[in-house]
Design a protein that fits this description.
This protein is an alpha+beta fold. Helix content is 39%, strand content 21%.
């Protein structure tokens, strides 16, 4: 028997309504902040990610699904959403439009990593990107959007942690301080961190190897090396979040796992039992567009993993909307009434009523059983007597009450009882 590839998951109908709920909340929250949807290709030229995400990141070094197409071009399934949006922004000349440019996306993405709870090789993200505004107000706006999204989902055990990783100017001094600190320990650190030490020592702070993590807690903190401009920027972000009643903690350990970040970085972390970890993360990336061949355009954004969001919501017992089921099941007792039931179902659907009818020539008992199992609120019974009367016997499956309703009044009757 053929099976799904490791690290992928089927989304079955009984679970899909939860995803649809999260997606609807995402879209509505983004719209409240005047963000509009953008859709980009599932695959891009590999260079976009190696230049944009950064060749010192684990994503580029270890996790990308990369292959040669029939034209011998190197293609990569997108491992995240930001680089593709940046490419689309440049290629479509969006800098010439109204600024700031604000967009959100709901995508699937792909990373070759060890599958675990809330983390798959094919996964899904909700993300938002804001281009063109270099001030702290843009950072605060994007963080506020992320905070509102999580609150709108009903999450309560999620804390916002923020940090600043400075700009290229102040980060050069910080890199020097990190090298001085890590140099005596380098011989016992992992091979990846030895490479990071030369290319981007700040990536060492994000290493997951226990042998390296024991040194990172006492490493120099970026906040102690910020230039005056970056200090002012970070202070304004904090002030705006406070004014907006967005609670936060300062966490100097946050550096994020992608090379394009600068200045503000942030994570929303859950404390819900069985779901610990980052729910949503992002930051500012003012040099990404120049890294992939365009001019510098200031930008800030975030992404949230949908699988982890779902896991956290279930751990917190956060409310989901009820699964949508048929408003009415039309039960035909014989061939003539089944034909009428089929026609009535079409009329109900045109009127905005979700309707089902028998497609398998079941018995009356089997049809009632199916309607109950499928969650239909009402069952409209049609037999020879009902056809002669021009009215169905409508049973309320919640309280077992029933009444006769004329065929031409059935749609309005059902709509009035939603």
């Amino acid at each position: 028997m053929l099976v799904r590839p490791k690290g992928t998951k089927d989304m079955l109908p009984e679970e899909a309504y939860k995803w649809q709920y999260i997606e609807r909340v995402a879209k509505e929250t983004a719209a409240a902040y005047a963000f509009k949807e953008i859709r980009t290709p599932v695959f891009e030229y590999t260079e976009l990610f190696s230049r944009g995400v950064g060749d010192t990141s684990d994503i580029v070094n270890k996790e990308m699904y990369t292959f040669l197409d029939k034209g011998n071009r190197s293609i990569t399934l997108r491992p995240e959403g930001t680089a593709g949006v940046a490419r689309a922004f440049l290629e479509n000349g969006l800098a010439g439009g109204a600024m700031p440019f604000k967009a959100y996306y709901l995508i699937s993405a792909f990373r070759y990593e060890r599958p675990q709870a809330g983390r798959l090789r094919e996964f899904h993200q909700f993300g938002a990107e804001l281009y063109g505004a270099e001030g702290a107000y843009a950072d605060a706006e994007v963080i506020s959007l992320a905070d509102a999204f999580l609150k709108n989902l009903g999450l309560k055990k999620v804390a916002l942690k923020i940090n600043s990783i400075g700009c290229k100017t102040c980060r050069a001094k910080y890199h020097e301080a990190l090298k001085n600190y890590f140099a005596p320990h380098l011989n016992v650190m992992c091979a990846d961190c030895k490479v990071r030490f030369e290319k981007n020592p700040m990536r060492i702070l994000d290493c997951k190897e226990e042998g390296c993590k024991r040194f990172t807690s006492n490493a120099p903190k970026m906040l102690d090396y910020l230039c005056d401009d970056c200090k002012d920027h970070f202070e304004t972000v904090k002030s705006l979040l406070t004014a907006s009643k967005v609670e936060y903690e300062i966490d100097p350990a946050i550096v994020r796992g992608l090379d394009y970040y600068s200045r503000t970085v942030f994570e929303f972390v859950t404390s819900a039992a069985g779901a610990q970890g980052t729910v949503l993360g992002g930051g500012r990336y003012d040099t990404l567009l120049s890294d992939i061949g365009g001019k510098d355009v200031p930008a800030v954004g975030f992404a949230a993993g949908m699988e982890r969001l779902l896991m956290v919501m279930e751990a917190e017992n956060a409310p989901f909307e009820n699964e949508k089921t048929a408003d009415c099941y039309l039960l035909g007792m014989d061939e003539g009434s089944r034909e009428k039931a089929f026609a009535l179902a079409g009329e109900l659907r045109k009127a905005g009523v979700s309707a089902e009818t028998d497609l398998m020539t079941r018995s009356v008992k089997a049809q009632f059983k199916y309607a109950d199992k499928a969650g239909a609120r009402f069952v409209a019974v049609l037999g020879e007597a009902e056809l002669n009367e021009g009215a169905a016997e409508v049973k309320d499956m919640k309280n077992s009450s029933s009444e006769k309703v004329k065929f031409e009044e059935l749609a309005q009757y059902l709509l009035s009882r939603r």
